[in-house]
Amino acid sequence: MTFLPQLTGRRLIVGVVALSIFSLSVLNMQAAELTAPNARDRQVALTVTALMKQQHLLRHPLDKEISARCLKVFLQTLDPLKVYFYQSDYDTFAKSKESLADMIQKGDINFAYMVYKTFLARIDERVKWVDEILATEQDFTLDEELLVDKDQATYAKTPEEGKDRWRKRVKYDLLLLKAEKADSKTDKSEGKTPKQRLTQRYHSFTKRMHQTDPEELLEMYLTSLTTSFDPHTTYMSPSSVENFKIMMQLKLEGIGASLQGADGYTIVKKIIPGGAAEKEGHLKIDDKIMAVGEGEKGELVDVVDMKLNDVVKMIRGKPNTVVRLQLTSIKDPKPRIVQITRATIELKDSEAKGEIFEAGHKADGKPFKIGVINLPSFYMDMEGARHGLAEFKSTTRDVKRILDDFKTKGVDAVALDLRTNGGGSLTEAINLTGLFIYDGPVVQVKDADGRVTPYHDPDPEISWSGPLVVVISKFSASASEIFAGAIQDYNRGLIVGDKSTHGKGTVQSLLDLGEQLFRMPNAPNMGELKITMQQFYRPGGDSTQRRGVLADVELPSLTTHLDVGEADLDYPLPFDQVAPQPFRKFESVNQALVDQLKRLSAARCTASEKFQKVERNVAHYKQQKTKKTVTLNEAKFLKDRAELDADKEEEKSIEKLNDNPAGIERDFYLDEVFNVLVDYMKQASVVKAN
């Protein structure tokens, strides 16, 4: 197998086990007092900018346009709703609008420190306002509105204007907490009033922002520059690189728990099956970690209001070492201490899993057996591959084992579920496609010089030649789109799900900055640049960029309408095409068959109460998302939320990316996928390629 050190994914993993990129916001930044850039920061900035000029696909100069974009992205990262900075702050920052890129390529990142110190001063000012506002009674019968459209937001010109905006923001936050309590079956407020919870939330946020360290600020600032070229080129600090490797290897050294930060607390989100915490038995979901101690007798260090990443670093450690956690929970508020022996944890929940279901009936009355494979990512142990390990962690190897098991159990059809798959290894996308086709091109790759290189299925053998459905969503990105696009081009199977996939058609490579700078083994760890160096194309010549892979049979879904596609990001590359490659198509799918399957599925969805509820939710969601303001009148607010909370629906869809249950849940959506497969098998003669 040819190893390609390229990535096509868009997810990162942080925390003890797993939090997606949607958690990698300024809200989770982290832990030394910021003073001024150091020599290492200068070296990193110089190396990153040199690589951007030499290696990025666009070969875009570090000019005034990139400078203006960099300023915009950096300020949006810190203050997306324009509620912290004043207009006068922006005017000061904008004086450097045309020169930032030039400063950075000279190793000068003082601008980032100037902006961030201003940000901290404004945070301190705002938290005082919040305390004053919460100390007064608010009138929720007034017909006031809060602007929620960030594209229409402007910076306040005076402190008076700013404070009035914050008065409305606090009212909005109080209404959200009231709605949350009304909706919740379990009160998780621990007896705190909404005002007390908000006070704690904003003070905790202030403390975390003051804990931001130089490494994190450098990562944020340089990424503001790199994402001004395209959305997927980012600078990863050493700690981010460690988290990325955990995602790709599907293993870590620690206790085996997924943690989340909320209102200053580190909360146990999930216990990993088979991990150290599960075996020890005393750590529970929703436990709050109050303190962490190293070893059996080490001092317990208070971690309340500590950055999540710092808490994670304290809990992780070498196998067979001990960590002690002081915990509380709503059910048991009395502090307790648990001792856990760290171990190497394999992230089984994040690897491919298969299950067999029965659906429909054959001519003899027996049910069809449908094998479902859930694939959360295209993972690959890149370190193991580089070192030639025989059994390094591999998506293709795991899926082949599942397919072999399906065949021994007489499965009639396979559904490969990529709905939560944000991408991963290009090598794995190519090799996995090869399990379903005999030979031929899987993907074409174009570099900055316009050279187009096809990558072929390296193995002429086929692991599954029977009926195949690939299930997609708007979250299916990159490597998922390579696989789905090839399956569709070859007429090898059906694509079912959202209207289209995410639309990410670029390939990133990881460049180790220490190795690039020092050209020596064991170079200093300076982080890595994940840089877009190529664009990929389907065997038929189409890019998936912005457009994605279109479903053959579209099912009603809220995720289709979320603004999470490539085209919704800033500065995405355009769609284009290259010449098609010659390849032998299968006879598994044709347009007449697809049209018939569409009609049958649409009729079922129209008659389905659950799918009609989805359609109603979509209509409400689209209506709410068009609103530029939200009412602060309590009666009207709660009435709107009772119909549909658009923000909550978005959160649920995004959380699904992080939630990989031990089994595969059969629900009404998957049932319709099965119905499509049954229709497919009954109405088509699925044969192997000639």
Fold and architecture overview:
By secondary structure, the chain is an alpha+beta fold. The protein folds into three domains: 61-228, no CATH class; 251-346, PDZ domain (Pdz3 Domain); 348-683, 2-enoyl-CoA Hydratase, Chain A, domain 1 (Alpha-Beta Complex), CATH 3.90.226. Strands 1, 3, 15, 16, 19 and 20 form a six-stranded antiparallel β-sheet that branches. Strands 5, 6, 7, 8, 9 and 10 form a six-stranded antiparallel β-sheet that branches. A six-stranded mixed β-sheet has the order 12-13-14-17-18-21. Helix 2 packs across helix 8, helix 5 crosses helix 6 (159-183) and helix 14 (426-433) packs parallel to helix 15.
Short account of what is shown:
The protein has three domains: 61-228, no CATH class; 251-346, PDZ domain (Pdz3 Domain), CATH 2.30.42.10; 348-683, 2-enoyl-CoA Hydratase, Chain A, domain 1, CATH 3.90.226.10.
Distance between the termini: 26 Å
Main sheet summary: 6 strands, antiparallel
Strand content: 15-25%
How many domains comprise the coordinates?
A: 3
- Name the poorly predicted regions: 1-31, 686-690
Described by the principal axes of the CA atoms, the overall outline is globular
- The CATH architecture of the largest domain can be given as Alpha-Beta Complex
User: Which oligomeric state applies?
Assistant: single chain
Number of helices, counting only DSSP H or I runs of 4 residues or more? 21
Question: Mean pLDDT across all residues, rounded?
Answer: 89
